[in-house]
User: What shape does this take?
Amino acid sequence: MREEILQELSVRKEEISDRVRDELKIIDRSFIKDLKIRKARRPEGYDDIAALIDHTILKPEASISDVKRVAEEAKKYRFATVCVNSSNVKIVAEALEGSEVLPISVVGFPLGAMDYVSKAFEAVYAVKNGAMEIDTVINIGRLKSQDYACVFADIFAVVEAVRPIPVKEIASELCVLAGAAFVKTSTGFSTGGAKEEDIRLIKRVVGNECRIKASGGIKTLSDLQKMVAAGADRIGASQSVKIMEEMKR
Assistant: This one.
């Protein structure tokens, strides 16, 4: 993103943020201040790759039994989190109760085209149902239209709505400006997958301001190791069990 655009957004940041905060007043977020917020566990050694993985099930046809199975797998292998659609958060939170694995939710998935107040409401409701992190999708059409003020507002709305719950998002510089905890390579739901060069580029842009999540096409232990070597802090994968079984060979 051009430096002059970022400078303009930095100047307008408080104006846009105040407008978004005013729009978010229709959402009751008062319960968040009383939440006992848990963080994803950290790796206990160089080979503790399970602590890097968001064990994921986002297929629209996923049944309740599928979701519960993924939660049981996460407890068995000690994955960092289980990532589900917001309608399944409560099921996963109950299945993971008493374990160290966090329930987390996608928001605005997979298109990101909903208005940001609706997106913020989905995020808040997911947190109310037990989500300890939020993976949200930006408004891609507005990004392609170079409406960066709207994209900033879109990210900031979710970050502000669930603060201090960590939020993961695409769009590196804007994520830093809006206060997101993670930058993602993609939703992981499209045809393209995460690439090492993408991770390195994001790392150059965000430095230590945000952590990085690699999503999409990570199906083997080798894929995961390449992403981590390139700078990824978290891995989104639906093939997590297969990766862990590779570790045992």
Observations:
- The chain has a mean pLDDT of 94.
